[in-house]
């Protein structure tokens, strides 16, 4: 009887060992793929992810006849751009406030939304994740004045600012706790930069 039990249990044990071996192999492959994915630069991962999403190529804009859809990028004058720069100077130092969209306090997307509405009469989405789906994507080396900059600090787009040229950008910073101007060369921003998006084109 013991011999019969031993013979019957052998295939079961072999099958179990095979399953364990297969699971171990699969786990190793998944870990290897995960390691390869995490080793890719954030900008590369985010550009790949957001290029596959349905992007908006128009935006709501205010014209003399009322609201209408404007094709992107919207051409704006140098004067309008200077208006935005003046607004940034006036707003520097205003405290960071989650959910803020006014001079009483801004969060990052509220600040950008405010600037674009005031200077260019353009209605951007309220949150950075949705803003990141508007306009054509721009890599760091092709950034122009007025482009939006997106950063991924939490595994996905979670911060936005406005590019000013020369590696500088304006934003409402939760770290500095205020509206400020920072450099893309700063370690944290360089590391977490995702991509730029072109909403406007400044006419020189």
Explain the overall architecture:
Keywords: Hydrolase, Protease, Thiol protease. The chain has six helices and 13 strands. The protein is α+β, with helices and mostly antiparallel strands. The protein has two domains: 38 residues; 156 residues, endopeptidase domain like (from Nostoc punctiforme) (endopeptidase fold (from Nostoc punctiforme), Alpha-Beta Complex). Strand 10 and strand 11 form a beta hairpin. Helix 3 crosses helix 4. The protein is elongated and about 80 Å long. The termini are far apart.
Poorly predicted runs are 1-10, 27-38
Class derived from helix and strand content: alpha+beta
Q: Round the Cα radius of gyration to an integer and report it.
A: 25 Å
Distance between the termini: 95 Å
What's the helical proportion of residues?
40-55%
CATH architecture label of the largest domain = Alpha-Beta Complex
Mean pLDDT: 88
Oligomeric description of these chains: single chain
Sheet-strand content, in percent, reads 25-35%
Overall spatial form: elongated
CATH superfamily of the largest domain: endopeptidase domain like (from Nostoc punctiforme)
Provide the number of structural domains: 2
Keywords: Hydrolase, Protease, Thiol protease
Domain NlpC/P60: 78-201
Protein name: NLP/P60 protein
Family: Belongs to the peptidase C40 family.
What structural keywords apply?
6-stranded antiparallel β-sheet; hydrolase; 3-stranded antiparallel β-sheet; endopeptidase fold (from Nostoc punctiforme); NLP_P60_dom; cysteine-type peptidase activity; alpha+beta; Papain-like_cys_pep_sf; 13 strands; Peptidase_C40; 204 residues; disordered N terminus; 6 helices; 2 domains
